[in-house]
Specification:
The protein contains 6 helices and no strands. It is mainly alpha-helical and 141 residues long.
Length: 141
Amino acid sequence: MTFTVKCWAIGIVVMMVSNLIINYVIFGGNTIAGNEEKVRELLVKYPIYGLFSAAIFAPIAEEITFRLSFKKWFKSALIFAIVTGLLFASLHLVGSYTSIKDLLYLIPYGSLGFAFGYAYFKTDNIFSTMTMHFIHNFVVY
C-alpha cells in the first residue's frame, strides 16, 4: 500500500499542477473539465447516489476495467501505465468533449490513471489501487 500511496501522491501533484495550467493559463480561469461539471451536478441533484457512484462503484469498475483486465497483455510497467492511463483519461472525457482544447484534460486525468497503472503493475495488488482510488474519489467528492 505504501508504494501505491507514493504513486498516487505523484499523480495528484501532476493532476493539480496540470489542471491549474490548463484552467488558468490556457482557458483564463473561466472553466473546469466537463467531467468535473457533471460530477458537481450529480452531487447537487443526487448526493447519496453520487457518492456511491463516484466513491464506491467507479473505483471498482475502473480498476477492474483499466488495470486488472489489461495487465496480462503487457510486459513493461511503463507502457502498461501509459496505455491504461490514456484509456482511463479518455473515459473521463467521452461525455464532455466539446473542442480540441478539451483534449488537454487527458493530462490531469491521465496522471492518476498512469499512477494507478504503474502502482498496480509493480505491486500486482489490485486492492491497493482500488483502495487508493476509493479514498481519492471520496475526498474529492
